[in-house]
Amino acid sequence: MSAPNHPDTAPHDTKATSKEWIGLLVLTLPCLLIAMDMTVLHLAVPHLTASLNPTSDQLLWIVDIYGFFIAGSLITMGTLGDRIGRRKLLMIGGGCFGAASVLAAFSDTPEMLIFARGVLGVAGATLMPSTLSLIRTMFHNDKERSFAIAAWMTTFMVGTAAGPLLGGVVLSYFWWGAVFLLNVPVMALLLIVAPILLPEHKAESFGRLDLFSAALSLCSVLAIIYGVKVFAAYGFGIDALASLVFGLFGAWVFFRRQRKLADPLLDLDLLKQKTIALPIVIQTAVIFAGMAYFMFLSQALQLVIGLTPIQAGLSMLPATVAGIVGSMGAPVLIGRYKPGQVMTAALILTALGFGMLSWPGSVVSLYMLVAGATIFSLGITPVAMICTDMVVASAPSDRAGSAAAMSETSAELGGALGIAILGSVGTAIYRGVMLNAVPSNIDATAADAIRSTLGGAVNALTDLPVALSSDILPMARAAFTDGLQVISIICTILMVLSAIGTLMSLRDAHCDASDSHDASDDAGADGDAVIDPALKQPAYVSGTID
Questions:
Q1: Theoretical Cys-Cys bridge with 163: which of 36, 152, 252, 452, CB 3.0 to 4.6 Å?
Q2: DSSP states of 254-299 as a string?
Q3: How far is the CA of 28 from the CAs of 6, 130, 138, 400, in angstroms?
Q4: Given a cut of 70, is residue 450 above it in pLDDT?
Q5: Which residues pair with 530 in a beta bridge?
Q6: How far, in Å, CA of 118 to CA of 124, rounded?
Q7: What phi, psi does 530 have (nearest 5°)?
Q8: What does pTM read for this prediction?
């Protein structure tokens, strides 16, 4: 049976049917779970610690390995989906995700749980580029594709917000492993309905998968993100340096190898097109600023303003809602204005939000913190949505999975780098202020904690006399807010520069997936549509990078 609704076999203005819209709901299910699994475990940590008694290092790996393996596997899985079929990879990943969730739920040792979380990360990496590239396959009309990608991105925000809430409800009635069992019925539903509602797409021109390149990309990204996280947590030491050097050297070898292979794992020619390369850079910049600032915002609400965790979560709700509004409103705006114009305006709005938070005294005001975060969230999400749409639509259809993986990997790296670099700036300012602010009669361990972070200071001061705490705590809070104000200024400047770059380079770009030809020419023997890349042209035609 042919695929009449394939983007390469139907006009790009063909409207989606109810089948495609129901299929979009199916595609949001794994996205929801991936986002939830990023946050749901945080609430379960005390319970699993009591049950499994992991060491501190094991506990860190239990929490972090999921995100590590997602980031490290994205490039390989995106390209693999282009080769074996995106629906097939989605179903394989969904099955593995469900099986690994069961394994994690019934883990009885820390090592078993670490292994299960690693498998969950690899499986999650199959789901993200598969769902995004399938949206390119299913929605040919440019406005509908943009709306579908906005809905796809919104699902991640909803999942991130819902994870702690749903996890708290589950932990109130069941053991810690039950938070993982939430994944199983959803993945079972995906496996049942995917063959019915989702089309298949693969390219027949690719050769064998280069396993060495796959291993090299995994190890390089893992090493870079691990080094960045160690740097953020402990400062610049030998472990962070060795990991970063190894990762960067591996990335250099990987890119050189791709240029020599007849069938590369990653088609670097995609990056010559500015409507792929520049959106990836801009998306990395906004994720760099946004992810880091939200981490500091949570600390400011609790440690400076004095809110409880629940109150802090509720205070961040307006920013979450603004993010959803910005993401879902972007398709409406790019239906009336050029994507580059919308991105420039959104980046200026983002800069205004960060600019508000750079005013003296703003980061000690609950209302200013909430207002500033709401404004920059309203600006960041349309930028991320349009960048993703531009990358997916610009890539040749048989390489949409690879392009989606590049976009997602850049976002992961941007978030990790933002937390590490901006976190180091804030920590350096805090420590510089607090270095000589601790009286000499305080215990050395407590003094080190007070000088290190505001969180460490709050915990250490609970065991000290009230008179002493009342003198030191205001200084610690002031030092933290000084650092946060500098971070706000850096983010403001970064967003202004991004807006200028967007205006100069992408103002004439259009969101048009315009490649199409007759389905009968490319029908595979098994009835699934396959594509001859020689017939494909990128959708965005605003120039290349030489």
A1: 36
A2: HHHHHHH-SS-SS-GGGGGBHHHHHHHHHHHHHHHHHHHHHHHHHH
A3: 20, 11, 14, 18
A4: yes
A5: 202
A6: 10
A7: -125, 155
A8: 0.77
